[in-house]
């Protein structure tokens, strides 16, 4: 009969099929678990009852069958009569016989040398002959360590060793690395957080200091191998270089300058403040006798007496005053005022009456030439009302005038016109009412001009350089490179050999004309743009006013000895002006005789420092 | 005119340097071999002054070596050995592949080896040079000797490292040249002075290593290869200088003591020998019997003036050093089981003390815990049940602090269970203006011979406060100039505000004047500071930059010192508060 494999048989009602293909059914089993249990309990033969898988019937094992099962379980042979420990019988050798077991004759190859072996040996021999196979080297009996430096030969120190840069040693640990540091070396929680957020390369301390109560509690340092490895990398990968460490006392770096108190007199304290409302632009110019002229952009020019502090005259002009300039000639009382496109020559009528009359006479003595010359400006005599105010002449330009300046003799004066690319500088002669343009082509954007106080030179400051022209020979003598971005103002030393330039990039350049066309010194004293610079006429002083609201007074001693360079010493930082609208000090001027300094600022004050 | 056209990069700096890749090609070595060669020969890259010129106009980041260095490497016999080794590996692989075991055997017998003796001699032409460079070698050997004998690197290397480290330790003990010890959180720093050269090394705490994965052990192994050679030769020479036998032998007298009494063999003799040595408790055999009169007295030359003073100072220093060397002479220590044995035994023996430990802990214990002659018992647990009268029970920090202080510190602070005083670094020498922890000040006072303990505690506290106040005074002085400026600015501001006020309302008002008391000193100072400021204005740009940098560094230092002092003050105040509270609680 056909039989199912066991697992299939579980679910089917039949056990298999007979020869005719009919199903052989399992014997009917109506017993459930309870019945099984009961049988187990009640049937004393249950332990030796086995189910026959083929028929499904229960079979009770006989005594012999039980014996067999027990023997097999014990690992014994099933057959009771089988003896596994029978004595062995050595079949071939226990009895020596006269005849061999096999009678096969020996092979021929057992009598002749082996070819294969011969081949192998010859290969080895060849290899030994060729030196491919080395015989075993005898073990050298040399101690591994001996006195290597027994003979220290001074010749063995080569250039290499002198050039060798030994690796720097690892820095020694400080208190913070201790396992039990003083409490102040431990990081506070904020510091710890900051440490964790820092980039590992930026940390000043490579670890977080920790405190342990006893040595027993100290754990292994997890980055120990790392640190040694990094040291190894440093040793063979890092370029080495000898660096000269600057080991200077910072006090030695400070230049030894004469003490300011030895260089007195110079203005030190604020003596006077004049408040003039909300006037922004203020200009000052001194006349020889201690009178001061001042223009402002509310359209007036006021004249003050310094000694008394009184306002002597006030001229209302009705337009913004750009520049004022007193005639430097002591025998003439004349004031040039730049007013929009006009320049007014004003006789303020102050001082000696003779002087005033002489000035008027000088201006009026002009006679018109026979042939009219073409001039770049128009000279207009003042109308009676204007004359009553003191105005004597009007010089009409075609563009706004930014600066007027007198020649030292008091006859010539120059004006700067804001006219980029065109005619920018004009030189006028007031006695002959005659003007001319000195330049054939424009030398860039001109910031300011100055006449040389002694020699017939004319200084023109463009954006980045100062040109010095010889007016007699009509040629360019020098071009001073200022090293600044944008020159704002310029002043000439009364000795004539030195020029200072203030610039909007907060530098002050001191030129020594005998020395070089480059600045002798570039002073970066101010923090903001410089607006004006001034020399004192008698004392070795110069001052600079800047947008940061300070005026710095410096000692600028020029020696007559050509070999000695000028001595520049900053003397005093004068504070007082409050910056307004990003502007600070707008103009500075020295008193002609006294070591006094006037400064006007954007906060609408004029301050006198004495 | 005429002449040949000058080609770029054919003269000058460009010809003095060579890139790493080109150097490698010139030497015909693979990158790992090149690296090995550079490590062994101590060749390091150089940074050219004008990198672009050397790099032939390119700005790519490259490593440059000096051409001379590379030419020097060309003559190195080791380069050939590298090549031989490569061939050997190839042959071996082939033999393995063909299962020719005889060939494998033969090849292995003839494995090419190389020695680094000549390189050591070449790199360090004099012995002093070698000593100067010993720091890294020692640290590395001590680290490698703690590695497990599995994976990572050859067992022989580890064994060699251990042997050399123990030998060096024994030398330091024999010569008594240890000077400073420092327990840091990274490990233990030791500083010894050998032939006038300070040698510092660090050993890790005795724990299993957590081996990092991002470390190239081959590089470290190459370094160790060189360092072991160097250290071996240095050890030989050092032993010779003390007339000691090398390889070290334990004194026969000591050896008898060390013999296990029960006659039970502990291990093979050759193996246990290193362990006995590393016990550090026995003295070493000398080649020449020590003569006790070999302490040469310095000849005295008649000297005058300053040199005499110098000589006196030197003599005093010498005496202090001798005293320091005999710090623990006559003391008998016993180490409890939880105490790290090796560092403590090493340190104690270096200063002449006798030391022993539990027999089960390590070989080499000389006396038992019950020995009545023990003077100091080192223990690192909060309390001990059975205490023997007649000896101090101390925490291990006492030993290290005493060594650093160069005197036996008062023991009261170091009893078991007591909160230890901070452990300070002996490597820091405070300069003027640096922050000095108060413990250091106390220590300095102790060294000078004053005894701050006699004064009552309160007084001490007051003193501390005074000190701190003193510190503050200094700070104030430093700050004074700034304050002056501030004052001035304030005045100016006041003036300004006045003037602005006067803008609005004309101040036609007369107030009674006040007599101004002018502080002359203050005025003087003000004037001086202003003069200084003006002078600074006149500095040249470069000098000003330097000056500002230096001043910035100084200010930062002061700031940090102040911060530390403040922290300390806050901490002390908090402590005081706590004490008071406790007192009150006790009283209540």
TrEMBL record, chain A:
Q: What SUPFAM superfamilies has UniProt attached to this entry?
A: WD40 repeat-like
- One GO cellular component term noted in the UniProt record for this chain: PeBoW complex
Limits of the BOP1 N-terminal domain: 11-267
- The domain of life is Eukaryota
Q: Chief subcellular site?
A: nucleus
What stretches of residues are WD repeats?
295-314, 585-610
Q: Which UniProt keywords apply?
A: Nucleus, Repeat, Ribosome biogenesis, rRNA processing, WD repeat
Q: Name one GO molecular function term.
A: ribonucleoprotein complex binding
Where can this protein be found? Answer: Nucleus, Nucleolus; Nucleus, Nucleoplasm
The Gene Ontology biological process terms listed for this entry are:
maturation of 5.8S rRNA from tricistronic rRNA transcript (SSU-rRNA, 5.8S rRNA, LSU-rRNA); maturation of LSU-rRNA from tricistronic rRNA transcript (SSU-rRNA, 5.8S rRNA, LSU-rRNA)
Which family is it part of?
Belongs to the WD repeat BOP1/ERB1 family.
This molecule's function is given as: Component of the PeBoW complex, which is required for maturation of 28S and 5.8S ribosomal RNAs and formation of the 60S ribosome.
Fill in the subunit field for this protein.
Component of the PeBoW complex, composed of BOP1, PES1 and WDR12. Within the PeBoW complex BOP1 interacts directly with PES1 and WDR12. The PeBoW complex also associates with the 66S pre-ribosome.
Recorded protein name is Ribosome biogenesis protein BOP1
Source organism per entry reads Catharus ustulatus (Russet-backed thrush)
